[in-house]
Specification:
Elements lengths: L8 E8 L8 E8 L2 E5 L3 H8 L2 E4 L4 E3 L2 E6 L12 H10 L2 E6 L23 E4 L1 E2 L12 H6 L5 E2 L7 H10 L6 E4 L12 E2 L2 H6 L3 E2 L2 H16 L4 E4 L5 H8 L8 E5 L26 H13 L4 E3 L7 H4 L16 H12 L4 H15 L15 E8 L22 E7 L14
Parallel strand pairs: 1-4, 1-5, 6-7, 7-8, 9-10, 10-11, 11-14, 12-13, 14-15, 15-16
Antiparallel strand pairs: 1-2, 2-3, 5-17, 17-18
Helix pairs in contact: 7-8
């Protein structure tokens, strides 16, 4: 028997994380028609009056939905790897309320008209990055001001630094104003075609390696550009090395650009991943164990700003290609919260608030959003059970993509419900 999505719910003694900086507290919460209708003292009385189902929620967490600052979707309409409909459904079920899409697509979103007509089918807030150059070619600037007027939240490029002369021209012209400019500190010409960062583990496995200078040298150039143009809001996409973190640590906090890290780089490294497992072929490449630990610590310290999903879907046919022939990337929002909860909260002692800062509050600031919070009358909430064990193969809310790391594992921690997708209720109905 499945739960009734229309039945009011009383969450008894749930852990409540209302907003950034708020103390975590236990209380009763009443939910009706997907909205928070009572919090605290009068929730139980109202629940009795409306015949609410009472759930013992003492081990669960109620908090604002998560925010993904950058992911990709190449074919929103009919994509064999992922469509907008499948991405939206899986992201909402994973606890996300906002996803920002990079300009990479079949028709690169580098013109105002290409930023139109892409609207979510349900309650997911879909934001679009515009493009710094036409087609990320690095040859000429896209129309920055026109894209921003058309609704772009900022400008981004592909997974590499644009030519410095073009970057200098764009920053000097200043059509982007104070809108964010999201750039990857990566120079493919220095990567030597490597799959993983240089290190003992990679050498033992026999994988071609990518030296850390493919990140640190372009990072130094980007930091120099940020100092040269302090009026621009330069952001760094997908930091991946301990050396890159060190360069950011050397800067005063007020001069340090905002920076994201991909969730997978916080979990996997060249020393811990099975060579035949999913997740090796990513850009930037996986680092050493020391790189992974440095990224985790930088995120805890605020040197890195936010965690990105950076969803890059492959279909089943593409997934069969050899590593050196397939497109890089990992897919799926649904493992981000469970896996990071186990890694950072359970294993490393982070608080729930610290994790939500990295997955929700800080990404919202990076995208220029209003601060997420829980409030009466709102459907902006997510209910998470950190101790729930589940089988990905039995879950009908996953993405369409074939390249999902951890898809064959048994994760611990699951989103039970969200106000943004009322039909999602992952708990058994108690017998009458």
């Amino acid at each position: 028997m499945t739960p009734n999505p229309e039945q009011p719910l009383l969450l008894h003694q749930v852990q409540l994380l209302e907003a950034e900086g708020a103390e975590l507290r236990r209380c009763d919460v009443l939910i009706q028609a997907g909205r928070l209708t009572a919090i605290g003292g009068d929730a139980a009385a109202q629940a009795s009056a409306c015949g609410a189902q009472v759930l013992d929620a003492q081990g669960w967490l109620l908090a604002p939905p998560l925010v993904d600052p950058h992911s990709e979707l190449e074919d929103p309409a009919t994509g064999s790897a992922e469509s907008l409909a499948s991405l939206e459904r899986s992201a909402l079920a994973a606890g996300y309320g906002t996803v920002a899409l990079l300009p990479r697509a079949q028709s690169w979103r580098d013109r105002p008209e290409r930023l139109q007509g892409l609207a979510p089918l349900g309650r997911l807030q879909l934001l679009l990055w515009g493009s710094f150059s036409h087609g990320a070619s690095g040859a000429d600037l896209a129309a920055h001001g026109d894209q921003l007027v058309a609704g772009a939240i900022g400008l981004a490029e592909a997974d590499q630094i644009p030519p410095l002369a073009l970057l200098e021209r764009g920053l000097t012209l200043g059509e982007c104003g104070h809108a964010p400019l999201l750039l990857a500190p990566r120079d493919p010409s220095l990567s030597q075609g490597g799959f993983v960062r240089e290190g003992v583990e990679a050498l033992r496995a026999g994988w071609p390696t990518d030296p850390s200078i493919s990140e640190t040298l372009p990072l130094q150039n980007l930091l120099a550009m940020a100092r040269r143009h302090p009026q621009r809001r330069l952001q760094l996409m997908n930091l991946s090395t301990a050396e890159g973190v060190s360069l950011l640590r050397e800067l005063p906090a007020e001069q340090r650009p905002e920076a994201t890290v991909c969730w997978w780089h916080l979990l996997a490294d060249s020393g811990s991943l099975d060579p035949i497992a999913e997740g090796w072929r990513v850009v930037p490449p996986l680092g050493t164990p020391a790189d992974r630990l440095a990224l985790q610590q930088a995120l805890a310290d605020g040197v890195l700003t936010a965690v990105a999903v950076h969803h890059q879907a492959l279909d089943a046919e593409e997934q069969l290609l050899p590593l050196d022939q397939r497109k890089p990337g990992v897919a799926g929002h649904r493992f981000v919260l469970p896996c990071l909860w186990q890694e950072l909260v359970v294993k490393h002692g982070w608080s729930a608030h610290q994790l939500w800062r990295a997955l929700c509050f800080a990404p919202a600031r990076l995208l220029g959003m209003a601060p997420p919070s829980l409030s009466l009358g709102s459907d902006q909430w997510v209910l998470f059970d950190p101790s729930c064990h589940w089988q990905p193969g039995d879950d009908g809310w996953g993405p369409q993509a074939a390249n999902q790391p951890a898809a064959t594992a048994t994760p611990t921690g699951q989103v039970l419900a969200s106000g943004l997708i009322p039909e999602l209720r992952r708990w058994p109905v108690s017998p009458a």
